[in-house]
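[recover] target loaded
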């Protein structure tokens, strides 16, 4: 049994990270285990921005987006010297295990730290991209998809009023999950994702044909990894001759009060992570599979690429 653990958030923030940290903290305290919060991701570990937490430190945060611990993408931690310094700072405080909430880059850093130092580490998938291998869900992905959906409903009103094509760019540098799920749920006619090639000329031909048959407006959702709305918009306008506008949601989709699903899932994952690390388990990530919490090997999680469900790609085409 470990007697002292730390928790941190890392990489891009996502709604529900606070609920996860709260659950880790309160579960550990409930077990009589000391909990430390590391501020600003791996930066805080290196700069000794580490504080012991009590239950009240995680009060009033479950409803907040972002992460009260702060987060960062840390270059120094990518070096062996940086990781050794981070490890030393933890050991100096008697910290025996670490819970890292973050996306694949952050979990990769955690995996290397654990391999190099033997520090027990448990990961939780926290990213709006929903691209952590082995889990059908990542903390924040539900809220982000709903934020996009809200934007689509609004864009639909104005697109319909003007009979326009609107191209909405959403996040997803390497993963089309957000674009695909929000696109299907929002009734987008076209969804472009990095996982699938597309032919813009063909798309424009079919847009023109649909307008000729009486279609009033078209919504296209494009994941940033599949193209820029600012570049696609003018091409579409030129090729179709249809009035086209573009919109980029940007970091709006990273923030906001977490949905019930993100709060609940993050709480469940946080409890599992705390109990696992306290009991001495290491090198695992907790995620969801068919609605159940499952543990995934950390090494596998960071060394495999999650595929976009082909059923979703198929469905998006049938319903368009
Ligand atoms: O959190 C992952 C992600 O949402 C990517 O989809 C996006 O490209 C990236 O964050 C942008 O994040 P930042 O502005 O923090 O670099």
């Amino acid at each position: 049994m470990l007697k002292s653990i730390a928790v941190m958030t890392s990489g891009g923030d996502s709604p529900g990270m606070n609920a996860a940290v709260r659950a880790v903290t309160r579960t550990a305290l409930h077990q009589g285990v000391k909990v430390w919060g590391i501020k600003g991701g791996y930066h805080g570990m290196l700069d000794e921005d580490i504080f012991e937490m009590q239950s009240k430190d995680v009060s009033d945060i479950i409803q907040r987006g972002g992460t009260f611990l702060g987060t960062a993408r840390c270059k120094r931690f990518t070096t062996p010297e940086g990781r050794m310094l981070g490890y030393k700072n933890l050991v100096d405080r008697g910290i025996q295990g670490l819970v890292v909430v973050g996306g694949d880059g952050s979990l990769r850093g955690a995996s290397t730290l654990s391999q190099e130092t033997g520090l027990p580490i448990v990961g939780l998938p926290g990213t709006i991209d929903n691209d952590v291998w082995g889990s059908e869900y990542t903390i924040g992905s539900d809220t982000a998809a709903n934020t996009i959906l809200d934007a689509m409903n609004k864009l639909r009103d104005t697109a319909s009023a003007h009979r326009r094509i609107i191209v909405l760019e959403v996040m997803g540098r390497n993963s089309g999950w957000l674009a695909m799920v929000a696109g299907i749920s929002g009734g987008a006619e076209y969804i472009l994702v990095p996982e699938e090639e597309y032919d813009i000329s063909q798309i424009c031909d079919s847009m023109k044909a649909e307008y000729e048959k009486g279609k009033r407006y078209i919504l296209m959702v494009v994941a940033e990894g599949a193209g820029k709305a600012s570049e696609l918009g003018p091409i579409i306008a030129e090729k179709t001759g249809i009035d086209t506008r573009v919109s980029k949601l940007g970091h709006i989709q990273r923030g906001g009060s977490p949905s019930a699903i993100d709060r609940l899932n993050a709480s469940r994952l946080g409890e599992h992570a705390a109990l696992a690390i306290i009991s001495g388990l290491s090198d695992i990530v907790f995620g969801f599979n068919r609605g159940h919490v499952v543990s995934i090997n950390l090494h596998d999680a960071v060394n495999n690429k999650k595929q976009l469900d082909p059923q979703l790609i198929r469905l998006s085409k049938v319903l368009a």
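[recover] notes: The radius of gyration is 21 Å.
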